[in-house]
Amino acid sequence: MDENLVLEVRRLSGGYRKGGVISRGTYKQILFDVNFEVRHGEIVGLVGESGSGKSTLAKIILGLLDPQEGEVIHHTPRPQIIFQDPYSSLNPAYDVEWILEEPLRVYGKYDKAERKRRVRDMLSRVELDEHYLKSKPNELSGGQRQRVSIAAALIRRPRFIIADEPVSALDVTVQAQVLRLMRSLREELDLSYLFISHDLNVVYQICDRVLVLKNGRIVEQGEVETVFNHPQHEYTKRLLEAAE
Amino acid sequence: MKYTIRRIWMLVVTMLIVSFMTFLAFELVSGDPAQTMLGTEATPEQLAALRHELGLDQPFFARYFRWLGGFFTGDLGSSYIYRQGVWGLIAPKLSLTLLLALISFILITVISIPLGVWSYRFVGGPFDWLRTTFNQLCMAVPPFFVGILLCWIFGIILHLFTPGDFPALRSDPGGALRHLLFASICLCIPRIAMTVRMMRSTVIGEMEKAYVRTAISRGNDRRQVLTRHVLKNSLTSTVTFLGQTMAELVGGSIVVEQVFGIPGLGRFLVSSISNRDYPVVQAIVVLLAFWVVLAGTIADLINQRVDPRLRLGGGAK
Known about the structure:
Order of helices and strands of chain A: EEEHEEHHHEHEHEEHH
Low-confidence stretches of chain A: none
Number of domains of chain B: 2
Oligomer: heterodimer
Helix content of chain B: over 70%
Largest sheet of chain A: 6 strands, mixed
Number of helices of chain A: 8
Order of helices and strands of chain B: HHHHHHHHHHHH
Helix content of chain A: 25-40%
CATH topology of the largest domain in chain B: MetI-like fold
């Protein structure tokens, strides 16, 4: 067993049960025999068009959906997720402090003072000023909200993060800032990422390795430089052409 | 704070408009009070003397402002029938009706909010139809019927109170409260059913939202998602609904007061209308209107505290 691994996905198949008001419904298979791993300290990109199965894969890895076949082996404690849309994924009724404290409260291991201390520490790590603690999400900009989302994902100090289109809703300059932040947090907090994106430019900026998903199958994987400069599969070539 | 002041200003303006319209309407409808009080056989001298005594020889606006001021000084003219001050007649009945509304409102709030959240458990489950049927039944059965049923079971069979014989609040407060409690149960049932239904659909809508997915991914179970994340987001529409309920409770108490024999405002309004006792009717109508506007304002102010996005006119920051 390789000690450097944080995640192994082996022969994974999965999908959804559709319909089923009267009958049990039909099973729609989305993923077919997916194999890959994420190593310690790596940022692995997962690219593919919409409908290729990226989100289904993320759900299965997070345990929100059961696989049909195969297995997901975690070598770290529970991974955390950063969602795409910072506008709707934060609870609008509470302020930033409550939102950041929430994962710790669910965890139930820390007292109030320790929770507050950790919240302040994480807020400074995502480069937000303390006066935002009392702000509601709708009072923040898109970039600030995504920093709050990142802080909320990191507050329990996970070692592995799944980022589902984390910068797609942001404009380009803010994208670059958030990507830079994610990269520096990887060094500071010793993180590994699975970075899901349909935007190949973003993937090229931040990822070490990349997986190309097409219709639920991984058609190509390798170092970002290699895959982007010498794509082997037709589908990868098409994606790259479309991105230019 | 600025919002609060603006909202209270709006309240005052609305109340002025409401009271003016009411005053004008009764001015047009009621004819000459002096004639009504003295009957057709009065001499012109007697009429003129009474008009002067009642202040009816004053110009319209002067009378309006004197009457409006009466809500603060307690001088709302005198009843045609009882020949005493309207305020003195109304005040004890008003306090009974408000007490009835208050007890009902507390019952509705403490029962329907937890029940609304809890009812989400049934969504998509095998017993949802049973819950829906029960809910619809509670909404459909009219309060007077439930009232008669309650009077029969708890009043006549179990002797917990005497229907039609309301104990005086001062001499027997316990008995009076028990009497009011049964009346408020009858008033509450359809309201609770409506609030629960409203909350259930709000909660279902909220559960679809992305922040719920975030909460689940952070390790919250279903109960925690409901009580900690969804409840607060569902509260604004519930508070608005409860504000309307508060307003309608006073109107709804008219029927219930009749059934339970509570000498409240509603019962007095009905008898005053049939007696054409216009000063009394006028005062009660304005008080009810004030109540409706006040309940709406309180609901808005609470919502604004819960969720600052809801400031009227988009005055955020």
